[in-house]
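Handover notes (outgoing to incoming on-call)

Open items:
1. Ribonuclease HII: sequence verified, structure written out, both below. Nothing else pending on this one.
2. Nothing else urgent.
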Amino acid sequence: MLHSNFSGFTLEVGTDEAGRGCLAGPVVAAAVILPADFSHPFLNDSKQLSEKKRHELRPIIEENAIAFGVSFVMQDEVDELNVLQASITGMHRAIDALKITPEFIIVDGNKFRKYQQIPHQTIVKGDSKFQSIAAASVLAKTYRDAYMEKIHQEFPAYFWSKNKGYPTVDHRNAIREFGATMHHRKTFTLLPEQLKLEL
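Ribonuclease HII structure tokens:
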């Protein structure tokens, strides 16, 4: 059973991101403030949910949230910042996008930079403990998946509609055969043999 609140503040925002471990595409972050009485039988960490359930949940979260924000940190910026900083920057921007200022921030994971003067708490596996973080994980994942499906149309050989940019065998084989695209993260090890290249 997910908890509805950590801090006791009414305007507590949960934030999470998707796409940190991908070779291609953006890191997408979301921030969600849910009403105290919100509950949904299958709201959980987005990784535990089927794609169908995530798609069903997204409009329910958006209609019921007091406020929500989503932000994209594109691959070039991920390369520039590093993936951890890109994730935190994305979460900050998602909070920036809220139409009201939260009183407290709960963050999935164990790393965060202070956001303005608002107190925060990092929570390891927060997306399987708190509803607002779980809701943020669902939004981050569904927005990112939709983006990857869109760029898949341009570059079907990489199977992004299926692998969403994660390092699957199909994805690595396509990189081996066709090289990297503008959507790939240049600082990531795209192929295991990169480690062995004579530079």
